[in-house]
Amino acid sequence: MTKELPDFENPPVVEVALSVQFDPLIALRTPQIGVLWQQFRDRFPRIEEHPPLDSTIERFGPRSRIEPGVQVRVSPSVPVPRCWFLNESGSELIQIQQDRFVHNWRKVGDSDSYPRYDRHIRPTLLSELEEFTAFVGKENLGEILPNQCEVTYVNRILAGQGWDRHGQLGSVLAPVSGAFSEEFLPEPEEVAVAASFLIPGEVGRPMGRLRFRVDPVYLKADDKPAFHLTLVARGAPLGSGLEGVRGFLDLGREWIVRGFAAITTPTMHKIWGRKS
Amino acid sequence: MQYVDDPTVLDLDFLWRRIPWVWCIFDENMGAMRPTSQAFHDSENGHPMSVLLAKVMLEKGRGSNDALQGLERFALASLTARSVRDLKQGIARDPLLEEPAHAVVFGEKKKSVSKKMAKLAQWLVPPPLRKS
Amino acid sequence: MTALLPYSGIMAGSITDREVWRVPVASDRLGSEALSEGGRPSQELRITIENESEIPVWLEPTARKLVELLKLESGWDSYSAKPISPHHVEGMFELLCEILEAHTPPPSVVPTTRGGIQVEWHRNGADLEIETLSRYRFQVSFEDRTSREEWEKELSIDDDLRFFRPIIQRIS
After folding, report:
1. DSSP label at A70?
2. pLDDT in tens, A152-176
3. Domain boundaries of chain C, sorted by first residue
4. Touching chains, C (3+ CB pairs < 8 A)
5. pTM value?
């Protein structure tokens, strides 16, 4: 990675997910996922089952903004679950379903610190994906044809540093000025913001989309206010195979990091220890 | 496997192609049932398109119904060797133990080629008529 | 909404403002045979329609045909054809909902040996064929005998699909 990206000593990130969606492997059913787990079990000794996620793809153009009036799903009477392989602490997990492979890191304990995209999360995902691809080939389950990649960063921004109340979102988020045309309304009780940006490509065709949303929350432990700032970059792989997946994940992560720095305030940057 | 066009299959010879009913559509432009273009592709396993040589069938006293023996819900369509060669395809005899009349139509089957074959095919054993 | 699809005990009932049709697509083989090589466990084709949406005239005939095609077993062409992939069915419906109008006539629907589906119209002097290549990729071919226009191309569901508008009007 040669591009210099904004870097923070203590970023408020609490979860990162790197996801690869591919054409469904119909032959990858629950028993096969169980066999796969044997390969990962030493690193991920815990397993959970969850409902599968819907297939999703970024759409562009005017009609992409209209919700479809008709939806059709063909599903087996016994759906194949989305299986989670978790490490002992639950701080890292792999999610697998017929058309998705995801690696998550999440902050579980107070002492957990963000293990960094370049040093840990990216190489781990790519290595696990290679293992999964080899398994699919060996078991004759089909061919992995990625059609969408997704990078997600979830940040938890705690009150007491740069802001105290949910109505002060403007202290955290640069695009929110907090200015009103007339003096009448008090400080907002809470504010939520969402926006999306096209990631431009060649020849006027977008390569993907960056979305962010900020939600006001209260922490379970002590009812203190916080903001969840979620950034998601999603788009098609930049080319075929693992190379194409790697290409979009890196691009998506760059947009997330630069986007995060662009939408948060310099005051918060200081609090998070911005290095560059 | 390399195939070579067999000149002993004459231009006016007929090639028979089995068409499952699911591949029979109603063409409103033609006002008739005909095979879909999907019926004129190479096999999923890469083997070129299989046909039966009508001449071999008839020499052995086998007719169109024999071509569909053991198959339910199938029709039978016919093309001339000439019409297939005009679409830059070759024809090679490929007799099998279980089917001495077997032959293959080889060559790149672009969509335009399959579509033309579909419209040129004539029924020997037609499917039941349906307009949807 | 009347029960339009052949499923006894059809309606799952309204869920808030939606109606859901469920149509079982059972394998013709029953019991343990259904899980042996070439057999398939039952599937469910589930159509969800927003109440305020006009039900397209092409929806039911297309769904009815696909229910039949989803029953096809391996080798249905007497050679090595694959069963229809349910994901190709979903992908095709997603595309059709995007490009067709409510009153577009229903297409002919045929299986492909690769486990996909093709929808086609041959009317008004034009021919339009759309084949699924994967969940989100399609091959389209069009021919207009009047204007002598003829082309074919591959596209993705996330491409700009507005070029379909005059074509759909042509075959409607």
Report:
1. E
2. 999 999 999 999 999 999 999 998 8
3. 55-171
4. A, B
5. 0.82
